[in-house]
Every structure is written in C-alpha cells, then in structure tokens.
Amino acid sequence: EVQLVESGGGLVQPGGSLRLSCAASGFTFSNYWMSWVRQAPGKGLDWVANIKQDGSEKYHVDSVKGRFTISRDNAKNSLYLQMNSLRVEDTAVYYCARWGREYYDSSGYPYWGQGTLVTVSS
Amino acid sequence: DIQMTQSPSSLSASVGDRVTVTCRASQGIDNYLAWYQQRPGRVPKLLIFAASTLQSGVPSRFSGSGSGTLFTLTISTLQPEDVATYYCQNYKSAPYTFGQGTKLEIK
Fold this sequence. Notes:
heterodimer; A: mainly beta; four-stranded antiparallel sheet; 11 strands; B: six-stranded mixed sheet
C-alpha cells in the first residue's frame, strides 16, 4: 500500500525557516516524480514544486522561487521541502504527492499524504 | 505560466441532476488535464486524467471531455456523496497549476 507521511510543520515567525519531510513507503520511491502541493485555510490547491526521480530536474512555482527548495533522498525514501524567508501568505497545509499511477505514465496525482500544517505568524 | 479558470465557482443541484463544471486553460494544453474531488476535511482524490480517462475505482457517473483550452467534468446523476470541491489541473508544463475550484452542494 502506498503511503506518504508528511512531518515538520508548525508555527514559525515571518522570515523564519522550516524543513518539511515526506516519508514514502509501499512503492519504489526512486522511480517517481514527486511534488509538494499546498492549501491555505479555506482556499484552493496551490502547486508548489516537483522533482525528477534522480533529483536532476526541479521546478518551483514563481511565488516560492528563491525561498523554497525541493529535494529528495532516494536511499531514505524521503522527499523534503526547505522553506526559508517564510511569509504570512505561506500559511497552508502542505501535501506530498506522487506523480503517476505507474512510473511510466503521466496521470496526475493518485496518491497524497495527509498533509502537515505550516502557520506563519508573529 | 498557464492559468486555469473554472466555472462556476459554486453550484447547487438536486440529487439525480446532471452537473457540468467547466475549466478553461489560458493556452492550449492538449489533453494534459486532470480533475480532482476534495470532500470537506479530506485529501484531494484523483478522478480523471488525460482529460477523459477515469481513474480506477471512480464511479462511472463521472466523465470528462475536452482538449486544447476547454474542458468539462460531468456528473451524470448527482449523488449525496458528491458534495465536494472539484479542481482541474494542467500538467502540460510546470508549474502544474490548478483551477480555483468549484464547490458543489446539494439543494
């Protein structure tokens, strides 16, 4: 069974940093693109970043470029999001998601974690 | 970046009704479009990918169509459990933007 478990969220002051982690199990992690998607309280889904299987390609949405960095450790079956210079508007539940039903297809995000809440407030 | 615009933003319909949600892309995305359902307090669930392919386990009352810039999600016979917010998503090119969502309620 595919499982994605996020951790690392919490309360942080504006300008602060947090590192989110996503522990993956139940599939061959190194075969899949992975992503972070966030959702501010009461708002819609907001795509944040994705990373290729070997980490050689990464994309970040403009609103987080230069502040957030996605990374992965295939040996630890883990995905990360380093978040620096946090702003109030970064407050959201952050979801880890796997791209594709199978490693060879392009079929959306069939697997999501339960999310971790990041609150940026003074 | 490709912008995704859904309409309507909210919708109220009766059980048994046919419901249609529209998603428009700011530029052509071929059929690189997915639809998600998010029930209140729950994680998003993939319904449809490649604009019209039903994800395994999704009831057949859900269907998708479209290509290029205009797409639709249709629920043929609305059920009470379909109360949710529905999102479209472009995956033609990163960032894989979502629409703003369509909140569906039962009358």
